[in-house]
Each structure stands twice: as structure tokens, then as C-alpha cells.
Amino acid sequence: MRVLLVEDDDRLAAALTKALARHGHEVVRASLAVDALRLAGGVDFVLLDLGLPDMDGLEALRRLRRVSAVPLIVVTARTEEREVLRGLRSGADDYLVKPFRTVELMARMEAVVRRGTRPRPQRDDVVNVGDVRIDLEARQVTVAGEAVTLTRREFDLLAMLAREPGVVRGREEILDEIWGDPLLSASRSLDVHVANLRSKTGRPGLVETLRGTGYRLGSTA
Questions:
Q1: What's the CA gap between 36 and 7, in Å, rounded?
Q2: pTM attached to this predicted model
Q3: How many CB atoms are located within 10 Å of the residue 75 CB?
Q4: Which domains, and CATH codes, for the chain?
Q5: Which end of the chain is less crowded, N or C, counting CB atoms within 10 A of the terminal residue's CB?
């Protein structure tokens, strides 16, 4: 297989490249997330470290999963259960904590390939809800042709719902992905951001609340 190794540690990358080559794999190495996103379309498998210098690996994983279903294993020194769950929820097929044995990595790669890959995401860069236009790539929102100014987190929240219209997102899931801390579910931060989205767009039904469950993209009513 052609394997993309995303790892900024030169010594570890060299060791993994040698081990993968011994097992018959061709290795393409990237030390930056921006390079990984550019190269991912031409490989059969991705090994992704989370501690990258230009972007958090989880954010790189989310961006990759918007356009690619390539098999991917997160390889990282982060051991917290919350980090593992965030990696899997963000689209990783498996999660391997450093240090690990080469034989375990190879076994997990084989298992991921045997399971097959998820369907390729079929998502538009632009989502329209009535007269609301959400441009996910340009990070712009317009209502009836007029631009609406949102904060970074307000847009991230709206984009998370817009990427899968109709899918209900739980409070903890949203707080985990947008704020990076599901424990914030005890605060009113998410509620304030939802209220701001409704107010700024002038479309109170754009973000629909499902009591005791979470939120989903609604209508412009």
C-alpha cells in the first residue's frame, strides 16, 4: 500500500518508514497538516500524529474526513480517554498510543483494511436552507443575499450542523468538537451561541432544539 505518514518527529518517522517498507509499503511522509491534507488524496492509508506544529491533528482529521474516506489510524502520545474518543468520533478508524510495537501497528492496519472503508463523504461546500446560504469552505453566511458576521465558534457550530442536515448532534458531542471539552455541558456557553445564531440570522428556526437530545439544522421559519 501507499501509506501517508504524518509525523513531525524525524527519528520516529524514519523508524516507522523503515518498518513499513520492510512490510512492503511505500511511504510518503508529511510533517505538517497542510501537506498531509494535500497528499491524502493519492494514498491508500494514513497514519496521523496529533501533535503537529501547524494545526491540531484532530482538526486536520476532521478536514480530511470532509472529503476523503481513506483508511486512517491516529498514532499519538495522547493517552486520555477523552482524546481517544475525540479521535474516533472525528473519523479515525483506529487509535494507537505511543510507544507501540511495529507488529501491533501492522496488525491494526490489516484489520482496518479488512473492515473496509466508510463511504466517501458526499457533502457540498455550500448548504442552502431557505434564504440562508452557508459556505463551508469560505466560512461565510448570507441571509437573503446579505452577509452575516459570525464569531469563529458561532460559525463552527453552524457548520457542524450544516455538514449533515437532519442529523441530531448531542450537546456533549458539540461541546467536545467545538470547545474541546464535553464537561462544558454544565455551562450555558452552547445555549448562548445557539441564541446568537438565531438572532444574527434573524431565522429562529435555523437551529432546532430537541429537548434532552441536542440540536440539528432546522428551517428558516
A1: 10
A2: 0.58
A3: 25
A4: 2-115 (3.40.50.2300), 126-217 (1.10.10.10)
A5: C
